[in-house]
Design a protein that fits this description.
Layout lengths: L2 E4 L5 E7 L2 E6 L3 E8 L2 E5 L2 E5 L3 E5 L4 E6 L5 E8 L1 H12 L2 H5 L16 E3 L2 H15 L5 H29 L5 H20 L7 H8 L3 H12 L3 H19 L4 H7 L5 H12 L3 H7 L1
Antiparallel strand pairs: 1-2, 2-9, 3-8, 4-7, 4-9, 5-6, 5-8, 7-10
Helix pairs in contact: 3-4, 4-5, 5-6, 8-11
């Protein structure tokens, strides 16, 4: 279902379904981009990102980007743009004491805070929250108080993910200087984005290291520190997750699923899938 909804507090929600769409625009507000079926591609500077139903993209205010979909199957996208004041109020409420919150009326607006503009996992509470919000909107809900409560919880969910995916990983890196750790994680996230967006390709360590602007050995050492996995282990897990999506939402034969996720050997895929999920791909499809 397609709609564009602007709330009285200027939070905006967009839902679109279609294929072969291309647009050139900029993100006027802090924005979360979800894809509930299919995939959507984004070009941000020299970075080419793809988001699928198991991931979402965060864009900071003012970011220049282009997006497109080119799929034989309809792509269902769901975007939330947060008003600057709503976002600032939320940040203040989770970072300031009540006494300061009561005394802050009339204070000057703060500059926008920027977050790691990267691909994040779409799972757990934020997935549950977004799907319920969309269900209500699809059914014509007009209660803005309830909608804004859902948006408030989306921000709570994101901050929890941000803490796990950024702050905790920064602390894992073995460098004394925090600025160095933040820069290393930024580059590692570029490697992670490359894996997310090219999981079905034959990716070499050299390509991955070049994309992250790190040497191969530096990449291997710091990636394991931050993500508790080697790049190869991360890629295999990602391919298996994408296989789950295809098995659940399409009727592709198992051999076709194997090709679509970048595996070469069906027997190897079936063995890895069963080892990881304790069920064969065929039984998973039958029970999903």
């Amino acid at each position: 279902m397609d709609y564009s909804k602007t709330l009285r507090n200027n939070n905006k929600i967009y839902s679109r379904t279609g294929s072969q769409r291309q647009s050139q625009q900029h993100a006027a507000d802090f924005s979360m981009r979800f894809v509930l079926s299919g995939n959507e591609r984004y070009d941000i500077g020299h970075r080419n990102l793809s988001i699928y139903p198991d991931s979402f993209l965060l864009l900071n205010s003012g970011t220049q980007y282009s997006s497109d979909t080119d799929s034989s199957e309809p792509v269902q996208s769901f975007h939330i743009n947060f008003d600057r004041q709503f976002l600032q109020d939320f940040r203040d409420c989770i970072t300031m004491k009540d006494s300061k919150l009561l005394a802050r009326q009339g204070t000057a607006a703060k500059p926008d805070q920027e977050y790691n503009e990267t691909i994040y996992p779409f799972r757990g509470d934020i997935r549950y929250n977004v799907h319920h919000l969309k269900h209500h909107l699809d059914n014509g809900i007009q209660d803005e108080m309830l909608i804004n409560e859902y948006l408030h919880h989306c921000l709570i969910n994101y901050y929890s993910i941000y803490n796990e995916e950024v702050l905790t990983k920064v602390d894992k890196l073995g460098f004394l200087n925090k600025g160095t750790r933040l820069e290393i994680l930024r580059r590692l996230n570029m490697a992670k984005e490359y894996l997310y967006s090219n999981f079905n390709q034959n990716i070499s360590l050299d390509d991955l290291a070049d994309h992250a602007c790190l040497s191969v050995n530096h990449l291997l050492r710091t990636f394991k520190q931050a993500f508790n996995q080697t790049p190869h282990q991360f890629l295999i897990q990602l391919r298996l997750q994408r296989a789950q999506l295809l098995l659940k939402s399409t009727k592709y034969p198992i051999n076709e699923v194997v090709n679509l996720i970048g595996f070469e050997c069906p027997s190897s895929f079936i063995r890895l899938f069963k080892t990881h999920y304790k069920i064969t791909p065929l039984k998973y499809r039958q029970t999903a």
